[in-house]
Amino acid sequence: MKKNLETLCVQAGWTPKKGESRVLPIYQSTTFKYETSEQMARLFDLEDEGYFYTRLANPTNDAVAAKINALEGGVGCVLTSSGQAANFYAIFNICGAGDHFITSNTIYGGTYNLFGVTLKKLGIECTFIDPDWDDERIEAEFRPNTKCFFGETISNPGGNVFDIERFAKMAHRHGVPLIVDNTFATPINCRPFEWGCDIVTHSTTKYMDGHATQVGGAVIDSGNFDWEAHADKFQGLTSPDESYHGLTYTKTFGKKAYITKLVTQLMRDLGSIPSPHNAFLLNLGLETLHLRMPRHCENAQRVAEWLEKNEKVAWVNYCGLKGNKYYDLAQKYLPNGSCGVIAFGLKGSKEEAIRFMDNLDFICIVTHVADARTCVLHPASHTHRQLSDEQLLEAGVRPDLIRLSVGIENCDDIIADLEQAMKKM
Ligand SMILES: Cc1ncc(COP(=O)(O)O)c(C=O)c1O
Questions:
Q1: What is the mean pLDDT of residues 291-298?
Q2: Where is pLDDT greater, at 109 or 307?
Q3: Which domains occur in the chain, in start order?
C-alpha cells in the first residue's frame, strides 16, 4: 500500500511481526550468530543477505535507513556517523585520485573544507562554481575526468536555493550524476529525486533528529543514474571488484549498484557507522518530522517578516520573503515552506552584533542549527572561521551574517526575545 509522507515518518522501516517489540528495538550488538561456517561464508561473498558485523549492517540502523529511503523515494539508503561522512562517502564512492568534480560554492563550511582541502590531499580535485553563473560558464568547468556535480537544496548558512532541475540536466548532459545535500529542506519540503537528482545526502544531525541528541548522516540512491551508459567513467561500479572475487556491482546489483558498493566497500574499509543507539534516537526524531517542519517554516516566515521591518536590521535573506532573490526558486522546489533558518545582518559594527547575541534570553548561541530550540550563530567567528574573507564571500557568507535557526516555540516569545536583545544594542 502506497503511503503518504506523514505515515512514512511514523511507520516506515520497522514492521513488527507477531510478538515482536512495537517500538524499533536497539540491536546494540557488534555481531550476529550463524549455524554453520558455510552460512557465514555466503554472507562474506555477498551471495546471501544477512547481518554479520555492525560495521557493515545492523538491524536498527537498517530500519532507520529504510525509513529515510522511503521518505526520499530511493532504492537504498545508508546511515553514516555524521553528515560530513555522508558527503565524503557520496563523493568518494565514485571519485578517486586523479578525478575531478564540480560543486556549488554556496555550501556548508565543513563541506567546503572537506572538498577543497581534504579531498585534494587524496588527489581529488574540485571546482567551486557560483550557481548564479550562466550555463555556458559553468559547463566550461566540466572536464573529461569530472565525475559528479554537488549542491545543497538550501545552502547553509546563506539560505540560497539550488536549482536542482537545471543542474541535474546539466550534469546529465556531461554524463555525471547530481548529488544534492537535502539537509535543510528535508524530504518533507523537497524530494530532489523528483527533479532529476541522482544521489541525496543528509546531515541527520539537523531537522531529522530535531532534538540535538545525535550526530549522523545518510546517503540515499535514486537508482536512476545509468552507470553502465558511462562505464568508462565509473569503472569502480562497472568493472570487477577484486576485493569481492571479481564481482561487478552494476551486473550483480543493478539499480542498487552505487549504494551497495558504498556499504560493502567503503563501510567495510572505512567504517563510519552510527551506533544503533544513535539510530534509535534519530528514529524518534523522524517520527515527528512532518509535524515539526511546518511549524519551523511558519515561525521562520513570521520572524523573517518581523526582521525585515525592523530598523536595526540591515538585510534579511529568507527565501520565503517576497522579493527575495530565491523566492521564485523556492516557490518551485519548496512550495510548502523551506526551513527555519534565516540569515540576516544588523546595522552597526560586528561588536554590536555580538552584543545582540549575548543579550538573548532563551535563544542560545550554539554550534548547531535546525533544532526544535531557537538558536543563533555568527558563522564568520564560529563555524566558518577557517575560511578567508574571500572564501567567506564566495560561500555566500557575509562577515556580518547572523544565522538564526528558528525553533518550534511560541513565535511571540521568539520575537519578544529578539526585540529585547536589540533594544540593548
Ligand atoms: C547542509 C549540511 N551538510 C552537512 C553538514 C555536516 O553534518 P554533520 O555536522 O552531521 O557532520 C552540515 C552541518 O551543519 C550541514 O549544515
A1: 98
A2: 307
A3: 5-284 (3.40.640.10), 291-423 (3.90.1150.10)
